[in-house]
Amino acid sequence: MHNKFFSKIKPLLKSLFVFGLIFTLVLGNAGNALAARSGGRIGGGSFRAPSRTYSPPGGGYRSPGGGYGYGGGGFGFPFLLPFFGFGGFGGLFGILIFFAIANFLVQSFRRVSQGGEGGSYGYSNPKVSVGSLQVGLLADARNLQKELNDLARTADTGSAAGRAQVLQESTLALLRHPEYWVYAATASQQTSLEAAEAKFNQFSLAERSKFTEETLSNFNNQLRQGSTTTASESSGEMVATQAPSEYIVVTILAATEGKLELPTINSLNDLNQALRQMGGVSSDRLLAVEVLWTPQAEGDTLTSDDIMAGYPDLKLV
Q1: I need a labelling partner for 215 at 20 to 30 A (CA). Which of 151, 229, 248, 304 fits?
Q2: Which of 180-194, 214-228, 247-261 has the lowest mean pLDDT?
Q3: Domain-embedded: residue 167
Q4: 54-69, pLDDT tens digit by residue?
Q5: How far is CA 102 from the centre of its chain?
Q6: 23 by DSSP, 3-state: which?
Q7: What is the spatial distance between Cα 199 and Cα 131, in angstroms, rounded to a whole number?
Q8: Are the C-beta atoms of 297 and 248 separated by less than 8 Å?
Q9: Into how many domains does the chain fold?
């Protein structure tokens, strides 16, 4: 009876064993694929508001005696006359009060108009543009990887001039390799200075979350370098079975004062124009910049499936 029961469940056990084997292999391959998501990062910046130019309202009519017609600073000659019994100054006193109030209102409106949204706080809150430019290149562009790696190790990301150089050098590196351009996308949004940092961080985190590990990072002059050994380097069989169409994706994020209108990418000319506009931002307008690329480690690649899954906004150019 025991043998009869075992013969009945034997097909079920065999199916479970096969399913478990397949499940293990799938998870193992998925782990290898995720381990290949190395990434690099260069950048830094500051979203500090301009220094305050607010001065407390102390205007108004200044009397010949050195006092003010209202508020602090002492009482001047016109205010003393009515109290010492000199007649005929009641009308003059009312006129002085009127001009004092009018002057206060004019100054208040002027500060609000100059300060924009932050006028009530005594400092300006200018408009800031947060832009993103992504380029997908063929993996044959290994020289580009090397240029970005060298830039990350040597760049001064702690100064405005150094960050502007990072932006210029990274866009220049892409402009030097148009033969490898395959995909591209742009996005830009204008917001207030107070909200710009949050928007910039959202863009940055969205891209960094696509990496399994940041194997090379230079952010605000803090250089960190991890292991460059990837799954593709440690498994000869995996290298032999990789798809031939592999890519490198470079993302450039910039926050600038004023407008940064990047063209919608529909052609190589659009991409060329967008790179030149991004790279042409001057250091006095540049608040923050971040350059991210994947894969960073040599021998590590992205497949077509990776591009479709992780970068759905990219368009063929």
Answers
A1: 304
A2: 214-228
A3: yes
A4: 444 444 444 444 444 4
A5: 44
A6: helix
A7: 10
A8: no
A9: 1
By the 10 Å C-beta count (0-12 exposed, 13-18 middle, 19+ buried), 12 is classed as: exposed
Contacts of 69 (CB under 8 A, 6+ apart): 60, 61, 62, 63, 76, 78, 79, 96, 97, 99, 100
What's the count of helices (H) and strands (E) in the chain, helices before strands? Answer: 10, 9
Three-state secondary structure call for residue 100: helix
138: which strand partners? 247
What is the per-residue DSSP string for 163-217? HHHHHHHHHHHHHT-GGGEEEEEEEEEEEEHHHHHHHHHHHHHHHHTT-SEEEEE
* pLDDT for res 209: 95
Q: Which residue has tokens 């193992």?
A: 28
Asked if the structure places residue 211 within a domain, the reply is yes
Answer yes or no: is 119 within a domain.
no
* pLDDT tens column, 230-284: 444 444 433 444 444 489 999 999 999 999 999 999 999 999 999 999 999 999 9
Name which of 1, 300, 255, 13 is nearest 142 in CA terms.
Answer: 300
Q: Which amino acid is at 234?
A: S
Contact 56, 234 (CB under 8 A): no
Inter-helix orientation angle 160-175/268-279, to 10°: 160
The DSSP secondary-structure symbol of 65 reads T
Q: Give the separation between CA 88 and CA 81, rounded to whole angstroms.
A: 9
In a domain, 284, yes or no: yes
Instruction: Give the amino acid at 96.
Output: L
The phi-psi region of residue 242 (left if phi > 0; otherwise alpha if psi is between -120 and 50; otherwise beta) is: beta
Q: How far apart are CA 23 and CA 27, in angstroms?
A: 6
Cα 164 to Cα 62: distance, rounded to the nearest angstrom: 49
Spatial separation of the C-alpha atoms in residues 67 and 227, rounded to whole Å: 72
Note down the domain range covering 214: 35-47+125-316
Residue in this structure with the two tokens 């590990």, named with its chain if needed:
213
